[in-house]
Amino acid sequence: MHPRIGQHLYDYSLFPGMKSTELEYRAKLVELFYSKDHAILKFFLLQAKNDPDFPHPYASF
User: Fold this and answer.
1) Domain spans of the chain?
2) Where on the tree of life does the source sit, at the highest rank (predicted)?
3) Burial of 37 (C-beta count, 10 Å sphere; 0-12/13-18/19+)
4) How far, in Å, CA of 4 to CA of 58, rounded?
């Protein structure tokens, strides 16, 4: 299982009703924590968008 999917399921089981943007943000924090290089941070910065209708880029923002 992909770590982000696992993190989403874990967080949602603890906090039912959590918004998808919050789930995505928490998963990105885990990815950053376990990342061995800075490529993932660069990816997040490139995908960032200040629009809560799009959870992945909004969490990167």
Assistant:
1) 3-60
2) Bacteria
3) exposed
4) 16
Sequence-distant (6+) residues with CB within 8 A of 45 are 60
Asked whether the predicted pLDDT for residue 24 surpasses 70, the reply is: yes
Q: Is the Cβ–Cβ distance between 45 and 54 less than 8 Å?
A: no
| pLDDT tens profile 6-16 | 888 888 889 99
28-38, pLDDT tens digit by residue? 998 899 888 88
Q: Report pTM.
A: 0.78
Q: Are the beta carbons of 20 and 54 closer than 8 angstroms? A: no
Q: Phi-psi region for residue 49, left (φ > 0), alpha (ψ -120 to 50) or beta?
A: beta
